[in-house]
Amino acid sequence: MAQLYFYYSTMNAGKSTNLLQASFNYKERGLNSLIYTAKIDTRFGESKVSSRIGLSEKAFTFDKNTDFYKSISEKDFKLDCLLIDESQFLTKSQVLQLSNVVDMLDIPVLCYGLRTDFQGELFEGSQYLLAWSDKLVELKTICFCGRKANMVLRQTEDGTPIREGSQIDIGGNEKYISLCRKHYREAFRKS
């Protein structure tokens, strides 16, 4: 029986690596999987999922207008798994479409994304994946102090924490750092 999975974490926990490993496992067994990633994230090139450890794979892209259910139901081959990277950028409607892929087409959907933004607020996609997924899996990473990192700090090039701004600002280690809640708060007290 297919299920909707949400693998979530902060930055640098290995979400994309985990997704690419899942895709490899399906293909190694002769099964068909499709990968989608957010069109707005072009850090590693367009239509590509890449991990920090050097793994990458071609992917389809999605934006707010993508209809996952329509696209998947029209495929002319048997699909065994759908993998979504950067799933925090999904809309509420798209999470519903993905749940319909699971429930009506009996295809497992594995979503990978951030839980919260740099202000500790849920992304829309994450909010509805947390609410509607059959399985929630937290991928953990650590703060520099060794505690579990559960916050993402956006910072300037010189390391000054950024308190305000657009929820979406694509970047990697040059812009974001994962911290425990204690050190996230301390970063703002120091600035």
TrEMBL record:
It catalyses: thymidine + ATP = dTMP + ADP + H(+). It comes from the Bacteria. The gene is tdk. ATP binds at residues 9-16, 85-88. This is Thymidine kinase. One of its GO terms (cellular component) is cytosol. SUPFAM superfamilies: Glucocorticoid receptor-like (DNA-binding domain) (SSF57716), P-loop containing nucleoside triphosphate hydrolases (SSF52540). GO terms for molecular function: ATP binding; thymidine kinase activity; zinc ion binding.
